[in-house]
Every structure is written in C-alpha cells, then in structure tokens.
Amino acid sequence: MRWITHEVATLDYLTGSRLDFPERGYAKLPAMRLTLNNPDLTTDPAARRAVKDETVSVEFATQHGELLSAVGVNHFVPGDALITGSTGDRWCVSRDRFDAKYDPEAPATHGVAGVYRNKPVTVLAKQMGEPFSVARMTGGDSLRGETGDWLIQYAPGDHGIVERTRFERVYRLVDSDRQKTRGDGSIG
Q1: What are phi and psi of 141, to 5 degrees?
Q2: Number of domains the chain contains
Q3: Are residues 85 and 142 in the same domain?
Q4: What span, in angstroms and rounded, lies between the C-alpha atoms of 43 and 162?
Q5: Residues 6+ apart with CB under 8 A from 88
Q6: Which residues does 17 contact at the CB level (< 8 Å), separation at least 6?
Q7: What's the domain range around 159?
Q8: Neighbours of 75 (CB within 10 A)
Q9: What mean pLDDT is predicted for residues 104-130?
C-alpha cells in the first residue's frame, strides 16, 4: 500500500532544476504536483483507449466511512461497493455506478457480497510523466498519482488513477490512435 507523503525539493529559480544543498541553508519547498481540474482526455492526443479485465471481491457498506486506497482516501455511504481487486488494492464505487460496471459471478447475485467481474467497457487512459492529482468527480475525493501512473477517464467528469504496475496487470490497451467520443460524450 502506498503511504501518502509530502515530498520536498529545493529548486533553482533560474533553471528550475532540483537542488539538494541543506548545508548551504537553502529552504526546502514542496515538490511540484500537477493538479488536474476535470480533464477531458477525449481531446488529449496522448490518451489511449484501454479495457480492464478483472475479477474482484465485493462487500457492500452498511454505514458511512472511508478507506485509504493506493491513490487516496475514498469516502463511502451505505450501499456503496467496497472492492478488493486482484492485486490486493482496495477502493469503493457508488452503488449506481457499481451496478452499471460489474456483474456477479455465480453464485453471487447483484447487491450481495461475493465475487464480481467488471464489464469490458472502454475507458480513456493517459500515462502521466509527473506527479499529479485529480478529483474523482467534481467536488469528490482527491486522488494522487505518481510519475508513470495512469489517469483514467471513465466518462465525462468521472476520473480515477491507476498505479503503473496495477495498470499493466489488469488493463489492455486497445489502440494507439487519438481517441474519439460518441455524440453523447461516451467513449467509443
């Protein structure tokens, strides 16, 4: 599990390069992190189409709470799906989004704890070249990614972050062309 830390770096204001001269008394500054505000990957030429293929274990929340995922705190309400992925990562999905994205594996039925498989839906994904953060949805939980992690756009205004090694294990890139969306804003 990744712990959320506050990295520090000393920057040379003329060159922008990182300096580490504590013996000279340089003040440490927080490392730069790109903050994304509702990014639209449909217009980003570096975005790629990807499909997830994963079987997960699911429980349903019985009370309000939060869990610490690999990329940040996830808040949940009763009924939300609390998911443990095939890589051991944990996250939550609102109940309405969960029902649209996952199917139960026998003998489980919708709404009952058990094993589920994600529906093979195409998403937009962009591997990031620097540390970054994004809100899952407008006003939602803030997620933090590191260099090499993937920014995911599930639908307009619906984002996630997947660590590089997890992405390599559970996602498949569909093509390398610039992505297009349907008239309704969905990815296709």
Answers
A1: -60, 140
A2: 2
A3: no
A4: 20
A5: none
A6: 11
A7: 28-52+120-188
A8: 13
A9: 94
Q: What is the CA radius of gyration of the chain?
A: 19
- Residue 148: per-residue pLDDT: 97
Check residue 5 and give left, alpha or beta (phi > 0: left; psi -120 to 50: alpha). beta
For residue range 34-80, what is the model confidence (pLDDT) as tens digits? 999 999 999 999 999 999 999 999 999 999 999 999 999 999 999 99
In a domain, residue 188? The reply is yes
CA-angle at 137, arms to 141 and 166, nearest 5°: 70
Paired with 81 in beta bridges are 60, 93
Q: What are the E-state strand segments in the chain?
A: 8-11, 18-19, 29-30, 34-36, 48-52, 55-60, 65-69, 72-76, 81-84, 90-93, 102-104, 114-118, 122-127, 132-135, 142-145, 150-155, 158-162, 171-175
| 80-104: pLDDT as tens digits | 999 999 999 999 999 999 999 999 9
Cα–Cα distance, 71 to 39 (Å, whole number): 17
Beta-carbon count within 10 A of 32 CB: 14
What is the DSSP annotation of 82-122?
Answer: EEE-TTS-EEEE-HHHHHHHEEEPTT--TTSSEEEEE---E
